[in-house]
Amino acid sequence: MSNAARSGAEEDVQQLVPDVPSLMAALDDGDYLADVGLATALFLAVRLPQPILLEGEAGVGKTEAAKALARVLNTPLFRLQCYEGIDAGEALYEWNHQRQLLGIRLAEVRDAALNESDLFGPQYLLRRPLLQAIEHPGPRPAVLLLDEIDRADAEFEAFTFELLAEAAVTIPELGTIRATHPPVVVLTSNRTRDLHDALTRRCLYHWIDYPAPARIAEIVRRRVPGSAGPLAQEAASAITKMRSLDMAKPPGIAEAIDWVSALSVLGITHIDAPTVEKTWGSIVKNRDDLELVGSRGAAWLVGDGHG
Question: Backbone phi, then psi, for 128, in 5-degree steps?
Answer without folding.
Answer: -100, 175
